Amino acid sequence: MTGQRRVALVTGGGVGMGAATAQRLARDGMSVAVLDINAETADSVVRVINAAGGHAVSVVADVSSRDQVERAVEQVRTLLGPVTVLVNNAGIEDFAPFPDIEDETWDRLMQVNLKGAYIVTQVVLPDMLESGWGRIINISSFGAQVGAPTMVHYAASKGGIIAMTRSLALELGSRGITVNSIAPGFIDTPMARRAIDGGKFPLPLEAMLKAYPIPRLGRPEEVAAACAFFASDDAGYITAQLLGVNGGTAV
What contacts 70, CB < 8 A, 6 or more positions away? Predict the structure, then answer.
C-alpha cells in the first residue's frame, strides 16, 4: 500500500486520546474518520484537522450498536474509501466497590469497551482483508495489567481487549494485518479529570504521581504517538504486542 493515501478510523475520536490520535494520523498523511457518539465533539476535531490542511470527516455511532457502526463505516467508505487503519479507543469508565456494581453497569461497560471493539473491528475487517494490509490498534488500560480497586468492571473489560488483541494478531498475521494494544497509564484526559475532581482515587493526585518514575500525568499526544508508530510501515513486523504508555510505572 505504499504511496496510497490510507484511511484511518478512530473511535471515541471526539475527545482526549482519540482526538489527539485522529489529529496525529492526519498529520502523518492519512485521511481520518472521527467516530464518536457525540456529533459536536467529533465535528470539532474534524474542523481542527481540516483547518490544518488535513483530510477528515466525522461520523456518529454508539460502538455497541452493530447497526449504527455499519451505517457509520459505510459513510466512511463512501466519503474516504476503505478503512485500513483502525484505532479502537472508545470507552467509558465507572467507579464502584465490587459488591455495589450493578448488572446493568457491568453490561454497559462490557458492551462499549469490549464488545464495541469487537463490532467495529469485524465491520472494517473486510477492507483490510481485501487490501492485504491493515493496522488494528486497541486501547486497553494499565489498570487491566495491575488491577484497579473500585474499577473491577472497567479493568475486566480492558483485560478482554488485551486477550482479544493477542488472539486476533495470531489469526490475521498471515493476511498482512497487525494487531497491537496500548495500555495508557495516568493520562490527562477529560475522563481522568472527572475521576480526579470527583475524588475517585485512594490517594491525592500528587501522591500518586510521586510513585511514577516520570512523575507527571501523561499527555494524550504521547498515546497518539504510540498509535502512529503501530499504524506505520515501520511497525510491519510487530504484532500481538502490548505497549505501556505509563511513565515507567512497574507492572
Answer: 123
